[in-house]
Amino acid sequence: MKAIQITEPRKLEIVEVEKPMLKDSDEVMIKVKAAGICGSDVHIYHGTNPMATYPRIIGHEFTGEVVEVGTSVQNVAIGDKVVVEPILYCGECYACRSGRPNVCEKLEAMGVHVDGGMREFIVVPSAKAHKVSPDLPYEMSVVVEPFTIAAQSTWRGDVKKGETCLIMGAGPIGQAILQYALLKGATCIVSDIDNERLDDAKKLGATHVINPLEVDVVEKARELTGGSGPNVTIDSACTLKTFEQAVEMTSPAGRVVVLGFSVEPSKIAQVHITKKELTIVGSRLQTNKFGEVIGYLNTGALNPEGFVTHKFHFLDAQKAMDLVEDPSIKKNKVIITF
Ligand SMILES: [Zn+2]
Ligand SMILES: [Zn+2]
Q: How far is the centre of ligand 1, averaged over its atoms, from the C-alpha of 145 (Å)?
């Protein structure tokens, strides 16, 4: 079978690999149908993801059909349409015992630390396969994983009905967070330096949008919230500056959610945190959010219509990666089909 492998930084190849086999009675084999390209896949391609090793079959946002099940598998059956929860953890460390396996000390993400889902077939423990409605097209089930990031970050930020939530960044993750925060009943403001993306955010339901290239984002956010600042700020732009601005503008008793992986320090003044008793939290991957997101997608409460803007056959993976890297092309989620 074939797989999309980053053999070394800047080198993407379609490689021939052995088709996997079930080794345990609780495993399932999935015929992969679609996989999303994520910013972190691009970082692996560039050689700038410190957690990735090479060669690596990428892909952690993927969906497909169950084609084989081990003898003890209960939760899914042959023919089921599933999405895969792409993280493996020890179950024993402090984080795992605290119900936070997404930050397990020995965490392995498929497509990063171990081979991922951009291949024709994959075998995973059945607990990682989550069944979705057979009516949900693969173009929609492929976005479950990015939406779990939104579920996690709005949960970490404790976004509540009636609150104001400012989302920094209107890319695919920012848009998913916007939809999720709206679902939780928050009034949403979105900032981004790209006016087209801001238009998309407005269409999705953002009450106000801010372009930091045109106005001072901190001042504007205060002005739009009657002087107090947003109650929750979720930074999916992940620059040194946006983190500083988030801490500065969030309201007293508010929360700041950090999604970035930068190793460079931001300049954060203690006074903002203490004076306002801010809660600053990180949000990584997700904990037990697949069921929740699938439920919302199955009922239509979340509707990622138009979320996927480009599709490529897997043999054209290089073209897909080139498109993702081309800043002149307007896009949202780019997916690979198998
Ligand atoms: Zn992703
Ligand atoms: Zn652990």
A: 7
Over the stretch 211-252, which tens digit does the pLDDT of each residue have? 999 999 999 999 999 999 999 999 999 999 999 999 999 999
* Cα(38) to centroid(ligand 1), Å: 4
Q: Rounded to an integer, what distance in angstroms lies between the CA atom of residue 27 and that of residue 43?
A: 30
Calculate how far, in angstroms, residue 210's C-alpha sits from the geometric centre of ligand 1. Answer: 25
Q: Does the bond joining 55 to the residue before it have cis omega, within 30 degrees of 0?
A: yes
CA of 94 to the centre of ligand 2 (A): 7
Q: Ligand 2 mean position to 92 CA, how many Å?
A: 5
Q: How far is the CA of 120 from the centre of ligand 2 (A)?
A: 29
How far, in Å, from the CA of 92 to the mean position of ligand 1? 25
User: pLDDT value at position 85?
Assistant: 97
Sequence-separated (6 or more) residues with CB below 8 Å from residue 288: none
* 258-313 residue pLDDT tens: 999 888 999 999 999 999 999 999 999 999 999 999 999 999 999 888 899 999 99
**So what's the pLDDT on residue 305?**
84
Interhelix angle 290-299/144-156, rounded to 10 degrees, is 110
Q: Is the per-residue pLDDT at 60 higher than 90?
A: yes
- Per-residue confidence (pLDDT) for residue 101, from 0 to 100: 96
